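Q: Sequence in, structure out?
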Amino acid sequence: MKLCRFNDNRLGLVEDQWVIDVTTALSRLPTASYPLPCFDLLIANLDEVRVGIETLSGRAKIPLDEVTLLSPVANPGKLVAAPVNYQAHLDETIADEVTFSREHVRRIQETGLFLKATSSMIGAGAPIEIHHPDRRTDHEIELGVVIGKTCKDVHPDDALSVIAGYTIGLDITIRGPEERSLRKSLDSYSVLGPWLVTADEFGNPADRDLELKVNGETRQKANTRDLILDVPALIAFASSYYTLHPGDVLYTGTPEGVGPIAPGDTIAASIVGIGKMQVNVIAR
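A: Exactly. Output:
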């Protein structure tokens, strides 16, 4: 199942080039009150909402190109990201001492993970706004993993069972010596989309082609089989430090080919099994 959020926080089921409005299925969500939970209610109750979707009749269909796509996760408690998790990307960072600060060029097992501010998150229908135009800002395509249940100290053999679904992530980055979390947490610098593909439909994430183009030129092209720490290992690693909650998003790392973007550019990102999304880049 492919689920999107669109327009004024409506819920859609994506089929081919159509969005079927299934917002009424959200009536199955429990009522939340203050203090609100630190997780995403939809993701936490995804199975119940899916039952509601399957029983709906007379559903309105809207052409996909006529809706504005929001982030498929509305309220992630945290965005957890993996640095230099493809060997070829690690090699290119080591070779380019001008662009990549030496403090940040280490193996992922040594560097660890980092957090991106949830306020930096947008969907495919919003533009990336370039901040600090005097500095280089880069694109990074990543497989995004959405956690489906509360978990801690997950064993790699059990890791795929805690996943709600998958999405495309763009980890936009200002280069410089500051900590990663600062340089990657600017408004609009965490893109998720175009929708969520549920784990049962997506299947095993171990062999998925991903590609990113800027203005039609291929910049990044790789396969998730080349991850240094694969998805189960990343979930085990992350959950050894954090309790993971429904709606938490794990950015799994970007392959080689990262490069600069500027206002006026168009980014096209695709991952086999998820689909494609196009995001515009503008001046702030």
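The helical segments are 41-44, 46-55, 87-95, 108-111, 180-183, 199-202, 231-239.
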